[in-house]
């Protein structure tokens, strides 16, 4: 790619555009692969079409390891202090095989569908508690009272964060998404400090939680997880599993409220909710872009030859609305049957927490539609503000619950702990 990138389109302008749907639609209609400028001004190739995105995600000529490219200074692009930046730049998602395969094998046994199935009653209990707390209110902010605390509590409990400390973890999670670099840096530092301290606690007193299980792997398997890897994996689980799920629940509820006839159908047929969750993921999936990939050798894709060592960014947002793969892609169809969306990616980096996110979405929407059948937006949709970024989230979602139906919205099962 040319060294002078000043005339190329800015990825930031697309992601932060006031009308992102229109910006993505324009990209979708253009060439399959577009030369653009990354946040720090360096060159990046944007891959916009479904089939090409699948190729980038599954072809071993594309690496996820930031150290194997020459153009981008990701450490400085994050703007984080040097002592914590490596934990955020060298996350689980940026390892290549064989290291990635080794780590993934160790961690994925803690994330199987069976494990998640055992967690469902506890997720249900948290959903019920959160909905109980807002029943009777005239109006409440669905992001602050439901979409935000649900995934954070699930992840904190899963990792083994003591209940008394969880409020502090809420604080830094707010800092990390604040529009203020100093708050972000402070939040990042506090988070790394808290995770390191928690790992130390679990080492001294193992419990029935994921972190203790991962430490056990480390002890039993002759240090196969290094201290950095353990901190970095815990961080990836925490960060990967939080904001994305907040967005699924927040944007998903917004879409249900602005498509009342489809919402009503779901209320009448709650067994359709898992299918609806898949469509919400496709139509407004939380991750608009992927983790950056780099070409290990020259690769021809979408009619362009990308030289070795260059940065490649897949756009899940355009792939998920590619008319070559999805019929009527700009229509939200909660009963869409053929829906192999890319919201959780593909290939070796396929989302580790997909089963958990699906379970949370299913239980959350089931709870909302059955408990508050007359839930409505408290403001006009145009008054809502979206926080821009790779995961775009609603800042607030003021809603009026209307009359509530009493009681739990799920099966009466005994909650179990993670292990
Ligand atoms: C709706 C919710 C979620 C969405 C849309 C989502 C999306 C994604 C995507 C697109 C990737 C691949 C990124 C890439 O390589 O380009 C990914 C990876 C990952 N996700 Fe999720 N995620 C969600 C929830 C979760 C949850 C709940 C967890 C953990 C509890 C989690 C943990 C991870 C981890 C650790 C990775 C890295 C996997 C690897 O590189 O092998 N995610 N996720």
Automatic annotation (TrEMBL):
<keyword id="KW-0503">Monooxygenase</keyword>
<dbReference type="GO" id="GO:0004497">
    <property type="term" value="F:monooxygenase activity"/>
</dbReference>
<dbReference type="GO" id="GO:0020037">
    <property type="term" value="F:heme binding"/>
</dbReference>
<dbReference type="InterPro" id="IPR036396">
    <property type="entry name" value="Cyt_P450_sf"/>
</dbReference>
<dbReference type="InterPro" id="IPR001128">
    <property type="entry name" value="Cyt_P450"/>
</dbReference>
<dbReference type="GO" id="GO:0005506">
    <property type="term" value="F:iron ion binding"/>
</dbReference>
<keyword id="KW-0408">Iron</keyword>
<dbReference type="InterPro" id="IPR002397">
    <property type="entry name" value="Cyt_P450_B"/>
</dbReference>
<feature type="region of interest" description="Disordered">
    <location>
        <begin position="389"/>
        <end position="419"/>
    </location>
</feature>
<keyword id="KW-0349">Heme</keyword>
<dbReference type="Pfam" id="PF00067">
    <property type="entry name" value="p450"/>
</dbReference>
<comment type="similarity">
    <text>Belongs to the cytochrome P450 family.</text>
</comment>
<keyword id="KW-0560">Oxidoreductase</keyword>
<protein>
    <submittedName>
        <fullName>6-deoxyerythronolide B hydroxylase</fullName>
    </submittedName>
</protein>
<dbReference type="GO" id="GO:0016705">
    <property type="term" value="F:oxidoreductase activity, acting on paired donors, with incorporation or reduction of molecular oxygen"/>
</dbReference>
<keyword id="KW-0479">Metal-binding</keyword>
């Amino acid at each position: 790619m040319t060294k002078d990138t000043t005339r190329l389109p800015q990825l930031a302008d697309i992601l932060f555009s006031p009308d992102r749907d229109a910006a993505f639609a324009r990209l979708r209609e253009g060439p399959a692969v577009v030369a653009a400028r990354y946040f720090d001004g360096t060159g990046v190739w944007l891959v916009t079409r479904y089939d090409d995105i699948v190729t980038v995600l599954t072809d071993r000529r594309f690496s996820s390891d930031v150290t194997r490219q020459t153009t981008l200074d990701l450490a400085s692009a994050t703007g984080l202090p040097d002592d914590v930046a490596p934990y955020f730049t060298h996350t689980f998602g940026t390892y290549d095989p064989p290291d990635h395969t080794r780590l993934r094998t160790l961690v994925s046994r803690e994330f199987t569908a069976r494990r998640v199935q055992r967690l469902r009653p506890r997720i249900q209990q948290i959903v019920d508690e959160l909905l109980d707390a807002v029943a009777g209110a005239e109006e409440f902010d669905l992001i602050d009272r439901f979409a935000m605390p649900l995934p954070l509590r699930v992840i904190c409990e899963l990792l083994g964060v003591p209940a008394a400390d969880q409020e502090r973890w809420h604080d830094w999670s707010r800092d990390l998404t604040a529009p203020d670099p100093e708050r972000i840096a402070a939040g990042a530092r506090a988070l790394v400090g808290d995770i390191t301290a928690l790992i130390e606690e679990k080492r001294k007193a193992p419990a029935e939680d994921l972190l203790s299980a991962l430490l056990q792997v480390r002890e039993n398997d002759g240090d196969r997880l290094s201290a950095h890897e353990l901190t970095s994996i815990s961080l990836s689980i925490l960060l990967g599993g939080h904001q994305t799920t907040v967005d699924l629940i927040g944007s998903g509820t917004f879409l249900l409220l602005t498509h009342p006839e489809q919402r009503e159908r779901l209320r009448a047929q709650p067994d359709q909710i898992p299918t609806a969750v898949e469509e919400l993921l496709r139509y407004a999936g939380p991750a608009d872009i992927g983790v950056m990939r780099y070409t290990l050798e020259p690769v021809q894709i979408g009619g362009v030859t990308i030289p070795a060592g260059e940065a490649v960014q897949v756009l899940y947002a355009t792939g998920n609305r590619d008319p070559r793969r999805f019929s009527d892609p700009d229509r939200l169809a909660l009963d869409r049957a053929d829906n192999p969306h890319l919201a959780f990616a593909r290939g070796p980096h396929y989302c580790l927490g997909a089963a958990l996110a699906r379970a949370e979405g299913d239980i959350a929407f089931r709870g909302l539609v059955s408990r508050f059948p007359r839930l409505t937006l408290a403001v006009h949709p145009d008054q809502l503000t979206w926080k821009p970024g790779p995961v775009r989230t609603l800042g607030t979602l003021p809603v009026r619950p209307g009359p509530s139906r009493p009681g739990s919205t799920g099966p009466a099962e005994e909650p179990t702990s993670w292990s």
